[in-house]
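Morning. Coffee machine broken again, so started the prediction first thing and wrote up yesterday's gels while waiting. Chain of 187 residues, entered below exactly as on the submission form.
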Amino acid sequence: MELDEDMFVAARARVRPQLVRRFGRQQPYHDAEDLADEVFAQAWASRQGYDPARGSVDAWLAGIASNVAASHRRRRAPRPSSLMSLGPVDAPSAEEVAIDAVVALQAATLVGLLLTELDPTDLQLIVAAALPFLEGAAIGTRPATPALTGNERVRLHRLRRGLARRLLPIRTSEPFRPGPSARLGGP
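Came back before lunch.
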């Protein structure tokens, strides 16, 4: 049985807003409208294939919508050949690698020095906050870390901010010069 024009117009009025919302969850609005219109263009072109014994018009349109969405995703996905056309990726030079290694070593040295200046309670707080980010094999077993209280979160934020201030010379490639010892968690 072929879908007649009146049934098609009624189905379009009823289903199109649903399809625009469905496609709009993953696409900009104008693309969602275009995809919904594509569903109805394909449905109209294949209306002689509609069989009411296999399901409702809405279900038939939902199947077409799934195919349109899959086709759209395939068209938008990068193909390996298009990725290869970007050309070879430039590897860093030996000089850049050496500079990065020196900067990392300076940062590690400075972090070590700054951690020695901390109060034992602040050091415990930093260790408790860092443990979830370590690999299990690096520390033997992954311990359960207690949830931080509001006060501890504020202290940790101040410690991180103080550490970032003290590490700024490293991030701007200025030579490291240890300054007077100052409390990390200051204002």
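The chain has seven helices and no strands. Going to sketch it on the whiteboard this afternoon.
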